[in-house]
Each structure stands twice: as structure tokens, then as C-alpha cells.
User: What shape does this take?
Amino acid sequence: MRPATLEAYGRDLRDLLTSLASQHITTPRDITPRALAAHVVSLSRERKLATSSVARHVATIRVFGRWLAARALCPSDPADLIETPTKWKRLPRVLTPHQMKRLVEAPIPPDSPSDAAPLWIRDRAVLELMYASGLRASEVGAIGLRDLPDTTGTRDGPRTRPTIRVDGKGGRQRVVPVGAPARYWLDRYLKEVRPRLVQPDGRDRGRIFLSHSGRPLERVAIWKLVRKWSAAAGLPDVHPHVLRHSFATHLLVGGTDLRSVQEMLGHADITTTQIYTHVDREHLKDVHKACHPRA
Assistant: This one.
């Protein structure tokens, strides 16, 4: 199981224990289905979590309930009757191509240039790559030098095969395409920025995207990066998955088949990809360009 997944389940369990404590439940034998159901309802009604997030919480609760019952800490599994909410009832947020253009072009040189590495080039490369290839934040941070072709490309077109190797969820590896703008900014970053960030102690661990201290750019830092530049572009509340949703939706609206999008997203089950077919195609065709506007 991936570290990020373990971290998420750990947070869910801590949330559950806090909720139970607020209900004056302090021992496993006092946990009831009603108490667990009250917690699940509060996640949706009070905390306004997405259905997918509530579903993950429920999965954590179910495993916890089975663990309690297996060790005889409870007379029976208190989570046995908890139902998983239907995932993706709500259509994921998608930016228009014009909005995406504003976002990826938001990183610009600072007004007062300094001797420090121009991290705005790194940020532009990250945004372009996430949209060009539909990558998760964790996948962007994990990309290593070995995952890239020998050369990336130019603004006018590729000099080599336009793909990148990605390690996705569940250890599933896939090869995804990279559009010409993303290849151009990757090339600039690798030539102008990364060499200035690398430290002699090897702290970069062969990763592509580095922080100002030369360490790999982690998932949380990429979230902050997206939030920073989306705010600068006048697009509040944009997170990394919005870029991924936009990537998939723009491809499908342009006529790409569902199986191809599933492969590029790294979904194990095509039913996860099918949410994007619920988009009103006729409406989006009026505002989206053919297939993918930055391919």
C-alpha cells in the first residue's frame, strides 16, 4: 500500500476516534452502529466532504470494525451495516481550455530577479505536465530522470517520442503522452533550473522536480504550487485533481475513446473513468477544441 494511502487511512481513523470521543464513547465495547452512522453523516453534512472521500472513510471504518470483532474487543462488528455511499454522484470540476491556458501560463518571472534558481520555470513545467498527461500530484513528484526520454523537445515539436513513464497507484506502471508545450518547459527546467537545485549529497534521489533545497518535490508541495498559481490566475479552489479531470474530459469531448483515457489515467476499472462520459458533450463542444488543446 502506498505511503499516501496509509496516511489517508490514518487520518480517517483519527477522525473517527475524535468523533466517538465527542459522543462520550471511550472503549471499543461501547461503539455502536448508530455512533458510526452519526460520524459518517457528519462527514457529509457538516464537513461537506466529497462522496469519494466519505466512501474512503467508510472503508476505513469497516476495516476497523472487522479488526475489533476479530480480536473480541467488541461482541460483534459494529460497522457491519454501514453502507458505502455511491461514488462520484457529483460531476468532477472541470476547467475550460481557456481557463487551463490561464492557469498554466500564470507562472511568470518575478519583478525583482535574483540569483536564486528561477522556480517559476519549474512550476510552469509541473502545471504543463499535469495537464498534458493527466498525472496525480504524487505521480508528478515521483517521476525520476530514468522515466524521461534522453531529450524532451522544443516549443515547435518533439525531437523524440513524446511519452513519459509513470508509477501509479497499486504499483501499476504506465506510459503516457506528453504534449509539445509540456516537453518545451520540461526541457527548459532540466537545462536552466534543475542543475542549480541539485546538491552534491544526492538528496534529490534522482527525482526530476526539486524544491529550493534540492530535495524531491512532494505531493503536499505540488498541491500548494497548484493552489498558488490558480489563485494568481483568478481561479480559486483549484487542486491537482482538477487538472486531471480537465485532461480526461477534454480528451473525451474531442472524441478520444474511453479505453484510451482509462489507460492514460491509470484506472484499474473502467467504471472509474466512466464518470467523464456524464459531461454534456454538446455544451462542451462549443467551448473545447478538438481532442486536446495543448497536445
Notes: The longest strand covers residues 163-167.
